[in-house]
Amino acid sequence: MSVADTLKELEKQLKEIEEQLGKGEPRYETFRKAYEEIWKLSRFFEKLLELAKRQSQEEEEEEEKFRMLHSELVGQNASVLAKRLNKKGFILGEDEILGDAFSNQVYRILELVRAGKRGEVYYSILRIFISAGRPFPADLAEAFRPAYSNELFKIFLFSFLSGVLERKSREAEQQEEENYGE
User: Fold this and answer.
1) Which SS3 state, helix, strand or coil, does residue 74 take?
2) Measured distance CA(89)–CA(6) in Å, rounded
3) What are 115-157's pLDDT values in tens digits?
4) Sites in the chain below the pLDDT cut of 70
5) pTM greater than the 0.90 cutoff
6) Which of 70, 81, 148, 173 could cross-link to 152 by cystine, CB 3.0-4.6 Å?
7) Are 89 and 156 in contact (CB under 8 A)?
8) Residue 27 burial (C-beta neighbours within 10 Å; 0-12, 13-18, 19+)
9) What gap in Å lies between CA 129 and CA 137, rounded to an integer?
């Protein structure tokens, strides 16, 4: 989808939100769709800032301004991405095949993340998705972009993995309750 299409879709969603609010009948799904369009635009703008930062390297003062604006936007987008990855992990953890596959590999993947081995982490997770016949989530692929520092990468992956493992944690708690309840 082009930027113009995304803007048109956002404008449509915002008009619909205004109408819903005018009638006193806001619907979550409309807000959710508008939020998704805003997220797409924010990611696109972040990429434009990266380009501007690289192209302005001859003028030190201008480069610094672009760098600061880029850092601010990356920080905001990183926070949103970490939350999205946790939610995505939780949803995928509910998938029995993926949940079990991640449970079997989680300590290895956690160690690779801790060591900052992005390539090996990507390969390990990609293998799980391919083996399960599931598509690799775009938000998860986003976490591997080199634009993010190693610390942000770790936060993203730990957030995702904690979401995935939440199902197993709940199952263990239920099993423990059943054992002690007998």
Assistant:
1) helix
2) 26
3) 999 999 999 999 999 999 999 999 999 899 887 889 999 999 9
4) 1, 58, 167-176, 181-182
5) no
6) 148
7) no
8) exposed
9) 9
